[in-house]
Amino acid sequence: MLRIAVPNKGSLSEVASQMLAEAGYSGRRDSRQLVHTDARNGVEFFYLRPRDIATYVGSGALDVGITGRDLLLDSGSSAHEIDHLEFGDSTFRFASPAGGEISEIAHLEGRRVATSYPRLVDDFLQTHGVTAELVKLDGAVESSVRLGVADAVADVVSTGATLRAAGLEIFGPVILESTAVLISGEQRHPGIDRLLRRLRGVLVARKFVMVEYDLPADQLELAAEVAGGVESPTVSPLKDDAWVAVRVMIPADSANDVMDRLYELGARAILVTAIHAARL
Ligand SMILES: Nc1ncnc2c1ncn2[C@@H]1O[C@H](COP(=O)(O)OP(=O)(O)OP(=O)(O)O)[C@@H](O)[C@H]1O
Ligand SMILES: O=P(O)(O)OC[C@H]1O[C@H](OP(=O)(O)OP(=O)(O)O)[C@H](O)[C@@H]1O
Ligand SMILES: [Mg+2]
């Protein structure tokens, strides 16, 4: 049985569970359940705090987990990234009061920096030769400056709205680009490959759509240049042998452009449909 750690709360939790559901796994029925067995797929899910997941996976207690790259690095765990999962993107940045006297990393020397990620920040400051006093907080770090317990913060930034609302401004280099990652310990459980194939399949299904259209047969070469598919388009005969039906997978974000170009080549009855699952 493959033992999988899944975030039980926070920004990664819902998307991770949704992705596993799309990958064909059954999940817990209510948000207080800590363990769920999906016997049909031979996996057991452990719903844990995102911050603790690297610890469980690194120690070998669990085989694989979904967490944030920032949390993995901050944990000091020996778990490593197998793949990134294309959600939970954020950057980790320093910020200080807008227009204030701290505007570069050297200004942090001897100052108080509030963060929920002390190891990550400490490692970064050390490589930049800066010694600061770290103030460890659990969350809502942006309020620490206004409340007088810190001079600057180092925190997760996504839209930047939370920083702005607290009167703070980003400064200094990017500490880390983070994203949701699949992590494993030293022993790679053989079941991980199937999980990974399924998760990659979900990502492909989200990124691609299926286009089907009717086309004058003599335009086939040009249409294949517009949309070539993974191997090559599927071409089926129509009753009228001057026409063919074509089926091809294309990136979802190019769908309207591709439809316009196919129409200009004479394609008609162009239909675009979602893909629910895929293995490439
Ligand atoms: N606004 C956000 N946008 C994108 N990713 C985010 C955002 N906030 C946090 N994350 C990412 O989510 C992961 C876990 O952080 P999160 O804040 O969800 O957990 P937590 O702080 O432990 O939980 P909680 O906030 O519920 O106490 C981290 O990898 C972080 O980079
Ligand atoms: O740049 P933004 O889009 O504003 O998002 C960033 C904020 O989101 C997260 O907070 P979260 O909601 O997890 O609360 P927390 O600080 O209590 O962890 C993070 O810690 C930042 O505070
Ligand atoms: Mg948080």
Automatic annotation (TrEMBL):
Cofactor annotation: Mg(2+)
Assigned keywords, A-Z: Amino-acid biosynthesis, ATP-binding, Cytoplasm, Glycosyltransferase, Histidine biosynthesis, Magnesium, Metal-binding, Nucleotide-binding, Transferase
GO cellular component: cytoplasm
Protein name: ATP phosphoribosyltransferase
Domain named Histidine biosynthesis HisG C-terminal: residues: 205-276
InterPro entries assigned: ATP-PRT_HisG_long, ATP_PRibTrfase_cat, ATP_PRibTrfase_CS, ATP_PRibTrfase_HisG, HisG_C, N-reg_PII-like_a/b, N-reg_PII/ATP_PRibTrfase_C
MF annotations from Gene Ontology: ATP binding; ATP phosphoribosyltransferase activity; magnesium ion binding
Protein source organism: Leucobacter tardus
GO biological process: L-histidine biosynthetic process
Pfam families: HisG, HisG_C
